[in-house]
């Protein structure tokens, strides 16, 4: 017989895993990172915990960077030149105008130009940060790297810059970080994550997988992320219920992930 004065135990907090596949040279990933974080803050009243893990993707292969540098007198290409070569001048300008509008809405700094550099070293550091300090440490590192690319026009393939970033977030000191970056630690892990993303059909970023069930492709507004996260968080943790909740968000390209 139960005690009528007893109060029911609170339900255990549910954890919703979010995998954010991105590349640091992707402007939409820069914006999506901020929009998603703001949306998670907007779910503070729910009895859920979000665990966000950024995983790597490579938009720029080693050979293409070498070709770009060769065409640019040995220097890394600037962003406007890179986009013009890739899309044509007119389309590149239209795309960048859309980026500027989204960045302004998200409250992000955005320089007019920047350096396009391979991000593999940065990805290795980010994977290590998640292994050591979880989403909090990885998130701080992400902010530093994204701002370096899009606000401060820095070369994120530069070991000294990355070593300083590692020290700032408490991952390791500069000497340790330099040795880490000059070695091959976490390279195999990064390569496997990129290969796995491509094998699952990811061809562009950002690509977000929520709770292992739902994929959301392309950058979305904070409002869109918030609506999706709240509906998934409030639904029973079953695939069909999550589907019903997610599909209530009209016009959002969210699809089930098939195992």
From TrEMBL:
<protein>
    <submittedName>
        <fullName>Thioredoxin-like protein</fullName>
    </submittedName>
</protein>
<dbReference type="InterPro" id="IPR036249">
    <property type="entry name" value="Thioredoxin-like_sf"/>
</dbReference>
<dbReference type="GO" id="GO:0016491">
    <property type="term" value="F:oxidoreductase activity"/>
</dbReference>
<dbReference type="Pfam" id="PF01323">
    <property type="entry name" value="DSBA"/>
</dbReference>
<feature type="domain" description="DSBA-like thioredoxin">
    <location>
        <begin position="18"/>
        <end position="226"/>
    </location>
</feature>
<dbReference type="InterPro" id="IPR001853">
    <property type="entry name" value="DSBA-like_thioredoxin_dom"/>
</dbReference>
């Amino acid at each position: 017989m139960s005690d009528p004065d007893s109060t029911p135990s609170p339900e255990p907090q549910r954890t919703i895993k979010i995998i954010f596949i991105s590349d640091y040279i992707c402007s939409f990933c820069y914006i999506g990172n901020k929009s998603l974080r703001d949306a998670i803050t907007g779910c503070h009243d729910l009895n859920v915990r979000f665990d966000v893990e950024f995983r790597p993707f490579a938009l720029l292969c080693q050979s293409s960077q070498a070709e770009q540098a060769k065409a640019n007198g040995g220097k890394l290409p600037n962003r406007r030149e890179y986009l013009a070569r890739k899309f044509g001048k007119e389309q590149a300008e239209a795309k960048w105008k859309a980026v500027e509008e989204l960045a302004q809405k998200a409250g992000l700094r955005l320089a007019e130009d920047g350096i396009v550099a391979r991000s593999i070293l940065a990805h290795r550091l980010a994977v290590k940060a998640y292994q050591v300090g979880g989403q909090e440490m990885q998130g701080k590192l992400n902010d530093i790297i994204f701002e370096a690319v899009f606000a401060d026009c820095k070369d994120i393939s530069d070991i000294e810059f990355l070593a300083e970033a590692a020290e700032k977030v408490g991952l390791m000191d500069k000497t340790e970080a330099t040795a880490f970056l000059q070695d091959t630690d976490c390279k195999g892990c990064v390569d496997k994550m990129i290969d796995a993303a491509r094998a699952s059909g990811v061809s562009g970023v950002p690509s977000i997988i929520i709770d292992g069930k739902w994929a959301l492709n392309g950058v979305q507004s904070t409002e869109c992320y918030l609506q999706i996260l709240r509906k998934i968080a409030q639904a029973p943790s079953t695939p069909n219920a999550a589907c019903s909740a997610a599909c209530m968000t009209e016009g959002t390209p969210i699809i089930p992930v098939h195992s």
